Amino acid sequence: MNNRRVIVKIPASTANLGPGFDTLGMALSLYAWIELSVSDKTEFRYYGDQMNGLPGDKSNLIYKVAQLVFDEAGVTVPELSVSMYSDIPLARGLGSSASAIVGALVAANSLIGNPLSENKLFQMATRLEGHPDNVGASLFGGIVVSAWDGEQADYVRIIPHEKLEALVAIPAFQLETEKARHALPSQISMADAVFNVGRSSLLVAALACGELGIIRHAMKDRLHQSYRAALIPGMATILERAEEHGALGAALSGAGPTLIAFVEAGSPDKADLERFLLDTLQREGIEAETLWLLPCVHGPQVTVEDKETQPAVPLMDRIKGDIKV
Prior knowledge:
The protein is α+β, with helices and mostly antiparallel strands. The chain has 2 domains: 4-159 and 297-319, 2-Layer Sandwich (Ribosomal Protein S5, domain 2); 164-293, Alpha-Beta Plaits, CATH 3.30.70.890. 34% of the residues lie in helices and 25% in strands. It contains 11 helices and 11 strands. The protein has helices at residues 61-73, 96-111, 118-129, 133-140, 177-182, 190-209, 215-218, 225-228, 235-241, 270-283, 315-319; strands at residues 4-15, 24-38, 43-47, 80-86, 143-148, 153-158, 164-171, 249-252, 259-264, 288-293, 301-306. Strands 1, 2, 3, 4, 5, 6 and 11 form a 7-stranded mixed beta sheet that branches. Strands 8-9-7-10 form a 4-stranded antiparallel beta sheet. Strand 3 (43-47), helix 1 and strand 4 form a beta-alpha-beta unit. The longest helix is centred in the middle third of the chain and has 20 residues, at 190-209.
């Protein structure tokens, strides 16, 4: 254990996919990297401007999550060396916290020889995150349909259709999940509940069977998106009209403010859709970045090295060919 160096690459995720509030998640081809090893004293190395301000002591989320793994496994590892870089923007609805939690769990488990099962890590991640959709997607890859009753999380994994692509529009402001949840009502009508059960069920079936043409009918929602629209000017227009510009369907990604549209590979409308998203947000005074992403079909990718035989390579030198920026 003391001689191991673990590097984990973790995918981002989008949650809800419209109607599947807190139950549907999809891994995306945007990544974070965490490097973990035993050290004489705990130290942190962050790379990238968006990591500025994160704790550099044992109050850090990655350190605390790693210690939960060690406690569960009955081992003691008080001092760690942690390095991290992330292309996943913080507080934008692309699962940045879930990727950090999953990365820390997987890295710590690998560091001590993987005594905890993948399902155990999923249960721990769900409890830490408070819902299973993002952590399930980042841990298992693909599309994850999940449920959690506060004690036990269950899931089924779906392999995404090979022609499914995603366009995300990432506004240049953060939206904390807690604030987005406060916008939701405490009760909904039976009609709205039935509507979402139907749409969510239809969406899961369409994704499982590869019926991409059904997605436009299935990604409708009455549980959360309309209540959050006031927090993201332009969102209502995008969700209502994205299909006119070639989208299979569109949704708020997680708690937002990122918006995601799904497209069939080879669509001639991709440029028009991208311009529509950017122009709609710009008319509301919102600058945004767009990224074309693919569903990520795998969970964390782990590299384990022997520190005595393999020289240390700075994290950024390892990943420079993979990062987006």
